[in-house]
């Protein structure tokens, strides 16, 4: 028993014929869901025949593409007669010229090449330029593997031409024992008609051979019983409604013939029959039929996911990364009985049926709910009384989740879904008895690891080094030849240059390039993650050239007008490429690109090549952000470039490795000043040990250092503190603060504030101005090379501080503000 048969046998139990008082109950249920005017012009309810119209796209029925033919055929583009007439075959001249012999199994209009005593074989060529009989003798020959040599040495005699019994057939008959004798093609078609019951006796055989022209494709549904008719019609209607591609008429005809032969009462029994051995195409159709009928059988039996403990996700029409019909990913129904607490079970059910998440998220939420149920059951009341819930129970559930999903990559999605279940429950009436204290607290309940907090001390992060990015960008033409090479080069160029997410790159539209009012290039893209469309990103000329080169190459033949990078898969015609296409292109490039010598050397002093195997498509987004960080781009500006809502998300892209931070700190340590503008240089080690970073410099006040900078005795009025220790890396922050202080002082005077309030602002302005003037003067007296080094070191330390304490040093403007 094959896999499809086993699956079908396992499902037959739920699809038994009805034995209730009304035997037409199941049939009537299906008929009620069919449109009253089903397939007009194709379905004939009087005869029970379905005659699909060709070339509509609904059925796998087309008109033969042969010139002047017009026959209606299934699946193929050309009928058998036109294939025969166009089939190439070799002539005697071709043999003399040494043309390679072909081994095609189709007929040719030419005669066999065997000639004896001036008499040529009268049968048509079938293989190697020979008829079927002489081709078999040639293949059996052990002395010759060349047609010319065999023709010169064989003693075989020519065969006379015997016309095929089918009217109008120009091919010679081969089955001479038949009465009348047909050619091999008509003999095969005759056997098929006899198996299907369309030709049952000798009289029918003679009638068909007298007019063997291709009839219109007909699906004779009326040949089976009422239940099978209803199931077949409903399955075809579901196939059309769900847009699963053209209906394969031959697969449904095969099921009708098998049901008649095996005398089965339903499609499920026919599919589960031990002798059912479908091919790949029919297996897919049969799997779809089972899924459709299973769903309707549950609906007919009164199945309601709002009350049942078994939840069939396929009944909810959820979205998913994997097609629902793929049997390899079919999973058993969700058993809500494993969630023993009624309030938690209904909370999960409410979230599932209210939000209709992706299928993958629905299963993750189920696993989380089961884990929470198993955790709460250890409590004194087994977690069944929702009034006893509180922060302690939530912490226990979070602890179990941390142990179950111990890494950030998997836990972040799990925590997101658990928060959604909690929030949906508290907003609805199903959790009226659940206290609000049983909620997710972002300060206390976090995933077990975090990208920045738990990064290894010397890890470079996800950003690819600048040299490696430039090496890949400059060697895109090294990508090996394969069908999608030109599109892959353009796709990778956009990925590397723009820092967009992979999903944003593959979904670019064909008209994504625009110019702004200054004549510079703008890329229009969609942020699918946040649901913001037609965003504008400034890009360089090189990126625009890559896009225009691709559109110029593909404009005449391949992609349609909608997507810049259309999917190369026939099943996704009219849709954009997927992440898998982009990832495969990057893997090919990383395999084909020349090696790049890295900065690290082995024990013998030879440089170790850069490891490109760890590069992923999303890493280029981090590299794009890091380039802007190194260039001094402010966090709010980088937030806009990356299209983040929260600047804290942007801070996750700020990465400064320890070596750069140590070198920058060592360079700026001697340039430390006090509140009076006097240099009080500290060693880098002493500075790190005895000071803490505050908004506009360092602080050496002992109690504040011990508190990590959160216990300033004078409320961060640094300019008046003897423990204040700024250096040149804080100059932009101090100057920005100076502007604020001057503005505040002017507003205080305008409002008539008391003198002591104005004096406070003016005193801080004077102190900060003195420090700024002294640092600017000292740096200006240094050689130009040292000034450049100090400027670079300051940028490094500012980036490091921003990454450690996002949003603390700079006053960030609201997104979209001028």
From TrEMBL:
Residues 1-23 are annotated as: Disordered. SUPFAM superfamilies: DNA breaking-rejoining enzymes (SSF56349). It comes from the Bacteria. CDD domains: DNA_BRE_C. Signal peptide: none annotated. GO terms for molecular function: DNA binding. InterPro entries: DNA_brk_join_enz, Integrase-like_cat_sf, Integrase_catalytic, Tyrosine_recombinase_XerCD. GO terms for biological process: DNA integration; DNA recombination. Residues 463-666 form the Tyr recombinase domain. Keywords: DNA recombination. This is Tyr recombinase domain-containing protein.
């Amino acid at each position: 028993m094959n896999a499809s048969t086993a699956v079908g046998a396992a499902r037959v139990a739920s699809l038994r014929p009805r034995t209730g008082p009304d035997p037409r109950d199941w049939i009537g249920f299906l008929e009620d869901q069919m449109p009253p005017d089903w397939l007009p012009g194709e379905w004939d309810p009087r005869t029970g025949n379905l005659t699909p119209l060709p070339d509509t796209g609904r059925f796998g029925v087309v008109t033969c593409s042969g010139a002047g033919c017009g026959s209606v055929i299934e699946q193929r583009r050309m009928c058998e007669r036109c294939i025969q007439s166009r089939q190439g075959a070799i002539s005697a001249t071709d043999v003399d010229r040494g043309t390679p012999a072909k081994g095609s199994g189709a007929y040719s209009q030419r005669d066999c090449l065997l000639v004896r005593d001036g008499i040529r074989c009268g049968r048509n060529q079938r293989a190697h330029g020979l008829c079927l009989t002489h081709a078999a003798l040639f293949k059996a020959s052990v002395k010759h593997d060349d047609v010319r040599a065999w023709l010169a040495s064989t003693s075989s005699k020519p065969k006379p031409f015997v016309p095929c019994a089918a009217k109008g057939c120009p091919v010679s008959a081969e089955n001479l024992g038949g009465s009348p004798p047909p050619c091999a093609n008509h003999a095969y078609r005759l056997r098929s008609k006899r198996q299907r019951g369309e030709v049952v006796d000798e009289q029918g055989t003679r009638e068909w051979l007298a007019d063997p022209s291709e009839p219109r494709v007909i699906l004779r549904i009326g040949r089976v019983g009422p239940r099978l008719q209803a199931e077949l019609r409903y399955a075809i209607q579901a196939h059309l409604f769900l847009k699963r591609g053209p209906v394969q008429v031959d697969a449904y005809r095969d099921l009708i013939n098998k049901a008649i032969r095996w005398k089965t009462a339903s499609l499920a029994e026919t599919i589960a029959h031990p002798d059912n051995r479908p091919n790949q195409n029919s297996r897919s159709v049969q799997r779809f039929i089972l899924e459709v009928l299973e769903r309707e059988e549950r609906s007919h039996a009164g199945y309601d996911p709002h009350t049942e403990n078994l939840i069939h996700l396929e009944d909810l029409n959820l979205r998913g990364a994997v097609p629902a019909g793929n049997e390899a990913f079919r999973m058993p129904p969700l058993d809500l009985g494993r969630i023993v607490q009624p309030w938690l079970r209904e909370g999960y059910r409410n979230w599932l049926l209210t939000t209709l998440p992706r299928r993958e998220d629905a299963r993750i939420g189920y696993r989380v709910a089961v884990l929470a149920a198993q955790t709460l059951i250890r409590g004194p009341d087994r977690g069944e009384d929702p009034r006893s819930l509180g922060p302690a129970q939530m912490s226990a559930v979070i602890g179990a989740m941390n142990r179950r999903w111990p890494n950030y990559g998997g836990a972040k999605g799990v925590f997101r879904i658990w928060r959604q279940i909690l929030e949906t429950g508290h907003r609805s009436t199903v959790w009226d008895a659940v206290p609000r204290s049983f909620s997710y607290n972002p300060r206390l309940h976090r995933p077990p690891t975090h990208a920045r907090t738990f990064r290894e001390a010397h890890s470079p992060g996800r950003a690819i080094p600048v040299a490696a990015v430039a090496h890949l960008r400059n060697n895109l033409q090294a990508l090996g030849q394969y069908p999608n090479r030109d599109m892959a080069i353009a796709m990778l160029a956009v990925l590397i240059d723009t820092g967009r997410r992979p999903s944003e790159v593959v979904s670019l539209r064909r008209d994504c390039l625009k110019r702004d009012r200054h004549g510079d290039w703008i890329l229009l893209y969609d942020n699918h993650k946040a649901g913001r469309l037609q965003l504008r990103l400034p890009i360089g000329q090189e990126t625009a050239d890559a896009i225009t080169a691709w559109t110029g190459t593909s404009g005449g033949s391949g992609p349609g007008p909608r997507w810049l990078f259309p999917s190369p898969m026939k099943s996704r015609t009219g849709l954009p490429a997927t992440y898998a296409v982009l990832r495969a292109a990057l893997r090919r490039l990383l395999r084909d690109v020349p090696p790049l010598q890295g900065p690290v050397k082995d024990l013998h002093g030879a440089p170790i090549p850069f490891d490109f195997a760890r590069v992923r498509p999303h890493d280029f987004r981090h590299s794009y952000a890091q380039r802007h960080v190194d260039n001094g781009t402010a966090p709010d500006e980088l937030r806009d470039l990356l299209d983040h809502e929260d600047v804290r998300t942007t801070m996750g892209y700020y990465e400064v490795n320890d070596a750069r931070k140590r070198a920058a700190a060592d360079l700026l340590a001697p340039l430390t000043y006090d509140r009076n503008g006097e240099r009080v240089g500290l060693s880098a080690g002493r500075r790190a040990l005895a000071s803490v970073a505050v908004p506009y410099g360092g602080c050496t006040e002992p109690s504040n250092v011990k508190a990590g900078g959160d216990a300033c005795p004078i409320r961060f009025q640094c300019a008046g503190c003897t423990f204040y220790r700024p250096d040149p890396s804080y100059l932009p922050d101090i100057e920005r603060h100076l502007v604020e202080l001057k503005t505040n002082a002017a507003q205080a005077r305008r409002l008539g504030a008391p003198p002591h309030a104005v004096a406070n602002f003016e005193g801080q302005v004077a102190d900060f101005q003195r420090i700024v003037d002294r640092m600017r003067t000292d740096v200006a007296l240094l050689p130009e090379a040292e000034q450049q080094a100090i400027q670079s070191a300051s940028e490094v330390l500012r980036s490091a501080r921003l990454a450690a304490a996002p949003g603390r040093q700079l006053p960030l403007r609201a997104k979209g503000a001028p």
